[in-house]
Amino acid sequence: MDDEIMKIGCFALMEPFTPMRRQFEVIRELGFDYADLTDNHDGSTLGAEYGFAASFSLDEHPATIREMVAEFGLTLTSVCAHGNLLDPASPSRYGTMEIIKAIRLAHHLGVQQVITTEGDPKTGFAEGLSREEKLFSIREKLHEPVRWARELGIDLLLEPHGELTDTVEGMSAILEALGNEDVVGVNLDTGNSWLGGGEPMEFIKAFGPRIKHVHWKDMEEEWVPKRGTKFGCGMGMIPLGDGVVGIRAIVESLLESGFDGPTTLEVAGPENVRKSAERLREWSS
Predict the structure, then answer these.
(1) What is the value of pTM for the model shown?
(2) Count of structural domains within the chain
(3) Which residues, in sequence order, are CB contacts of 242 under 8 Å at separation 6+?
(4) Within a domain: residue 1?
(5) Are 156 and 183 in contact (CB under 8 A)?
(6) In 3-state terms, what secondary structure has residue 167?
(7) Are 148 and 205 in contact (CB under 8 A)?
(8) Which phi-psi region, left, alpha or beta, contains residue 67 (left: φ > 0; alpha: ψ -120 to 50)?
(9) How far apart are CA 242 and CA 270, in angstroms?
(10) Residue-number span of the structural domain to which 213 is assigned
(11) 129-163: pLDDT as tens digits
């Protein structure tokens, strides 16, 4: 398999305190053709307006984003819409409406995939929910986004980044509750699934063809004691293959399963990114 099939892109959060345009510029400088639209928000923010936050408004005109991406010869593979699906709905929380907006934006951008997850509880209310209540909360908050995804032909992918999604059992329960197998799929985050106590290889065995995207990150040895107690982390701080997750075996298993979707490096630091991409190309060739 060559790099045209193993689509390797980058998170559009490459340099802190710089605008979105700089993120795409760095991705191109590193030699990548693919990126995702990572951070985003409702309305406007002071940071984005004044150039020190790498975030697009969900209300942005699609042409503005499209032209910026085209300037650097990049292709967007997904729009991230990581929500808070457990705490009570509030204007201050990224939830159902923001996920719907992300789906609409992806449609106008010609991007096939929107990635979401449940996140960690932030309130005593959500922390006190039973497993069944948490499952219902996720189902309720994603009901309308699933309808919009079907209407607009978008794949809505669930990522391991929470107590339920980080295990095969929990992810299976959510997928069963949501139904719509042809619309709802999985984004395998290698670091998150491992950190939350799951096994990435078991995700591949369980979900196979429903895995439409991969977020790559490896984890250092120091994270081992935290397994099963921490659910999700933003970026890996080491190159793929230098940690304890077993990335090479995951690559091989994914390819054996027939995976041919886009992938995204969640790796901090230009040299770590370069080395990670080189290894992915080697392991997938």
Answers:
(1) 0.97
(2) 1
(3) 218, 220
(4) no
(5) yes
(6) coil
(7) no
(8) alpha
(9) 15
(10) 7-283
(11) 999 999 999 999 999 999 999 999 999 999 999 99
